[in-house]
Write a structure and sequence with these properties.
Elements: E1 3-8, E2 11-16, H1 32-51, H2 56-63, H3 67-95, H4 98-117, H5 121-150, H6 155-183, H7 187-208, H8 233-265, H9 270-291, H10 296-320, H11 323-351, H12 357-386, H13 388-417
Antiparallel strand pairs: 1-2
Helix pairs in contact: 1-5, 1-6, 1-7, 3-5, 3-12, 4-5, 4-7, 5-6, 5-12, 6-7, 6-9, 6-11, 8-9, 8-10, 8-11, 8-12, 8-13, 9-11, 10-11, 10-13, 11-12, 12-13
């Protein structure tokens, strides 16, 4: 794909040998294989996002910290992600995808180095913070870049591949970390060396990605709570109503899942913990391909139902000490997140113009990750105070109520819209 650059009035214009852009500031349609390549940086960064999950038992043993501290370390990832989302979507829509993605990948590489040499809670907090910032950039700019490369005629496929890239990477990270840390020496080093190599390949993909610099940009503050254009607010609200409980359920499994496995199985096997997380996100990936032809609101309704069932089975698993039921809960949580994410992204892709898409993606993720940061941390400290079974039960009841509300919101909108989507 050839590229030339000319400067005029301080602006940089990129001309590429591809089909014509779909309107001013619109995406350039590229060959279909580029959609998959564009999704790879999203996958690579999300591998990092959860690669530490099976390794926390090692750090807890070597450094020494409680389940409450563990959820705080996880929460700093949410802090970094939310802070990034306040900036990355707007910057990406104004300056382009690459000026956001390349610094994000550099931060992800720095996080790998810190994880590999961590000897204190503070180091883990910094590494998780950097990881969160990088993830915030890819869920806004990276996922929008997939849509840009796909072009107007392949928006629905772009939403599917971007969403699947996210959840597949999130699941691959803990499985890869679990297997490598059990099979190879220096477990907390080897994992992040391998991840650093994958991030370097993502850098190459971003550098060569056929995306345009924006011709037009949104106005307003550079740092702000991300939003959507007028008329798209209802689509955003529907997505958040289902996506937020779904991603909170999977966040709980990632942060306290190894503790639950230890309590139910009496094992600290990193492969088992990583495999459960991988299975959860594999379900999130597979279900999106299974439901892709359904209407967007039907997908969202199914996502809310799956998250609700996940919390029911979680309570049963804890009170019966049943590992198979715990795994079923994780699979249902993954399916709930996957469908909530796909439905939300598809609604935004169908209604938001390209010059505001990264900010819209950021808005969806802010709505999801705020809840995902608050409830699992609360569950961790509550479990330290009242016991794991009671703390998990209270968490599950609260999240189940939110998932039911999300399902009711979608049902009400379907009746209002007459299932037009």
């Amino acid at each position: 794909m050839s590229e030339s650059r000319t400067a005029s009035g301080g602006a940089v214009v990129e001309n590429r040998r591809a089909t014509a852009p779909h309107g001013r500031g619109g995406p350039v349609a590229a060959p279909a294989w580029w959609i998959w390549v564009a999704a790879w940086p999203v996958t690579a960064v999300f591998v990092l996002s959860n690669a530490a999950t099976p390794l926390y038992v090692l750090w807890q043993r070597d450094i020494g910290f409680s389940k409450g501290t563990l959820t705080v370390i996880f929460a700093f990832y949410i802090v970094g992600l939310l802070g990034s989302l306040l900036v990355s979507g707007v910057v990406s829509d104004r300056l382009g995808r690459k000026p956001v993605l390349l610094p994000a990948l550099a931060l992800a590489l720095a996080a790998c180095a810190i994880f590999a040499t961590a000897s204190s809670v503070a180091a883990l907090v910094v590494a998780r913070l950097f990881t969160g910032i990088a993830v915030g950039a890819v869920v806004s700019a990276g996922m929008a870049a997939v849509t840009d490369v796909a072009g107007q005629e392949r928006k629905r496929r772009a939403a599917l591949l971007a969403s699947c890239a996210m959840v597949f990477g999130a699941g691959l990270g803990p499985l890869l970390a679990g297997v490598l840390s059990e099979a190879l020496p220096a477990p907390t080093v080897t994992v992040f060396v391998v991840e650093a190599v994958s991030l370097l390949t993502a850098v190459v993909a971003v550098v060569r990605m056929p995306v345009r610099s924006p011709d037009t940009a949104s106005r307003g503050s550079w740092v702000r709570i991300p939003g959507v254009p007028q008329g798209s607010g209802s689509q955003l609200a529907l997505g958040i109503a289902v996506f937020a409980p779904g991603i909170t359920a999977t966040s709980f499994v990632l942060s306290l899942g190894p503790s639950l496995l230890s309590g139910l199985l009496g094992t600290t096997s990193r492969v088992v913990a990583g495999a459960m997380a991988f299975a959860m996100f594999l379900a999130a990936t597979g279900v999106q391909f299974a439901v892709q032809k359904l209407s967007r609101r039907t997908i969202l309704a199914a996502g809310a139902a799956s998250t609700t069932l996940s919390m029911v089975t979680l309570v049963v698993a804890v009170h019966t000490s049943s590992v198979p039921v715990l795994i079923a809960s994780a699979l249902l949580a993954g399916a709930g997140q996957g469908m909530g994410q796909l439905g939300g992204l598809s609604l935004l892709n169908s209604s938001v113009p390209p010059q505001r898409l990264a900010e819209a993606n950021a808005a969806l993720n802010v709505g999801g990750y705020v809840l995902a940061g608050v409830l699992p941390v609360s569950a961790g400290y509550l479990s330290d105070a009242v016991g794991l079974a009671r703390g998990v039960t209270l968490f599950a009841a609260a999240l189940m109520a939110l998932a039911v509300v999300g399902g009711l919101v979608v049902a009400a909108d379907r009746r209002r819209a007459g299932e037009s989507a």
